């Protein structure tokens, strides 16, 4: 048996085991903190700004969004609303409450971000399978 139950640990061995566990946990948490601080991907603030480009459903027409830091956006050819970026997805909630609408309602567009740089955004719509390529304007 490697550790017989009848063996009593000395006080020095107990402190050594407890110290090794504490040092190991501290090293693990320092590694996680370092990764989160320095090597993690960009947060949702990378979307803030004006983006214009083309989507499958518009043909020759261009689409454009202006994302603000307070998580509201203005669509150039679509209704305005709120946005949220989480993981690999961009969620656009549009509010339809104009004079032509009898009952106000919200719609949710879910876009999967395929690739993104500081100047280019490639994504596709999860529900409709449409693809869009947007470039940062400002």
The mean pLDDT is: 84
Runs with pLDDT <50, length 5+? none
Overall 3D geometry? elongated
Structural class: alpha+beta
Rounded to an integer, what's the Rg over CA atoms? 26 Å
Largest sheet: 8 strands, antiparallel, barrel
Largest sheet: spatial strand order: 1-2-3-4-5-6-7-8
Count the strands? 8
In percent terms, what proportion of residues is strand?
35-45%
* Ends distance: 69 Å
Q: Which sequence of SSEs, written as H and E, runs from N to C?
A: HEEEEEEEE
Helical content stands at: 10-25%
Q: What count of helical segments does DSSP give?
A: 1
Compact overview of the structure:
This protein has 138 residues and is α+β, with helices and mostly antiparallel strands. 21% of the residues lie in helices and 39% in strands.
């Amino acid at each position: 048996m490697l550790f017989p139950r009848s063996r009593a640990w000395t006080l020095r061995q107990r402190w050594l085991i407890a110290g090794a566990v504490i040092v190991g946990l501290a090293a693990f948490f320092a590694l996680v903190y370092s990764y989160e601080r320095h090597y993690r991907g960009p947060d949702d603030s990378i979307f803030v700004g004006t983006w214009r480009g083309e989507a499958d459903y518009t043909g020759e027409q261009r689409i454009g969004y202006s994302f603000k830091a307070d998580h509201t956006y203005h669509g150039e050819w679509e209704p305005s609303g709120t946005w949220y970026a989480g993981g690999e997805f961009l969620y656009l909630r549009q509010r339809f409450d104009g004079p032509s609408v009898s009952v106000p309602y919200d719609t949710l567009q879910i876009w999967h971000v395929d690739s993104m740089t500081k100047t280019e955004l490639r994504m596709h719509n999860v529900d409709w399978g449409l693809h869009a390529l947007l470039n940062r304007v400002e």
